[in-house]
Amino acid sequence: MTQTHTELYEREAGRAIELTYAEPETVVRGGLVVLHEVGGITDGVRLLITSLAAEGWLAAAPRLSSASPTHEDVLAATDVTLAWLVERGVKPDLLGVVGFDLGGLAALVVASNRQLGAAVSVGGGHDLPELADIAAKLTSPWLGLYGDGGDELAATEFERLRDAAASSGVVTNVVRYPGANHRFDADPAAAVEAWQRTLSWFDAHLR
């Protein structure tokens, strides 16, 4: 069974970042930066990392320095992790990012500030104007998966986000799951479908 490992990776003098990662047991198809939810590297994050590795992706999650990282913090941590993946032999055009919950917003930020092969956001962020503003500046192919339960995106807000993403000029797809919450644990069927969409997005764009 695929296992996670943690190491302190030093990119430049005086600066290091903690990475938790899992390696495929067979051929590496590409590399994915996994941006974690609130609470840091949880069991759920480790499960996501190992599940991606089981699909052939070298997946690594940087430990973000605070519970509410700034956009600059997210980008800096992602850049270091991307460098680690490249050092491990992943080609630049086979790099992507995925985030869940808080990490979903972080992945959108990365996809709007870096040119990667693919990006996926699973939930994350309740401030529609902020989400739409970021999505309008997308520079990487982006898949956004959102539930509408509780305080998630309402139908009209969802349409605004989808229109903003479409205006960016890159390939995007924004999917709303009625009845699912932001963690997708209220609707197992939606969770399975969202996972398959995630894998298909990376399959299509990182090749």
UniProtKB/TrEMBL annotation:
Keywords: Hydrolase. GO terms for molecular function: hydrolase activity. Residues 68-205 form the Dienelactone hydrolase domain. InterPro entries: AB_hydrolase_fold (IPR029058), Dienelactn_hydro (IPR002925), Dienelactone_hydrolase-like (IPR051049). Its EC number is 3.1.-.-. The keyword Hydrolase applies. SUPFAM superfamilies: alpha/beta-Hydrolases (SSF53474). This is Dienelactone hydrolase family protein.
